[in-house]
Amino acid sequence: MLGKLRRAIAPPATEQRSIQLAGTPITYTLKRSNKRRSIGLRIDDNGLTVNMPLRAPEKWLHTVLSEKADWIVEKLNNWQSKKPAPTQWIDGQKIEFRGEVFTLRAIPSLFASPPQLRGEQLVVHLINITDEQKIEKVVTQWYRREAERVFSECVAHY
User: Fold this and answer.
1) Helix 58-67, helix 69-82: angle, nearest 10
2) Dist. CA 98–CA 96, nearest whole Å
3) What pTM was estimated for this model as a whole?
């Protein structure tokens, strides 16, 4: 009975929270664990993640976040500025392949065909060249086929 009561009182293991740090609104993920003895801060693609002991007091969390506020805001801003802009899957867009930059050429055609590298262009023949999701799907499939080909060559070599 006591074990059930403890589980009912325990805070959730993971939750999304917001806080004002150094004058900046910050949304973060809070993860609680029985295995932790201290509060850990991590900044990555998902933003700020705070890991802390399961039964640690909220006051401790707020103290650590306040003490590290300038560092957190600076690191989040740096991370955001380094993030590449999302790729637009449209005719004329620059895309990368094996360390080189190619121009995506979406050409209207009665029949769709696999993409082909022609010089510095990746040419895609599609029925509807305005459908970015279809262009992305076709190019992504081509990337996978090319990767499998290169991986097979590497495996055969080694």
Assistant:
1) 70
2) 7
3) 0.53
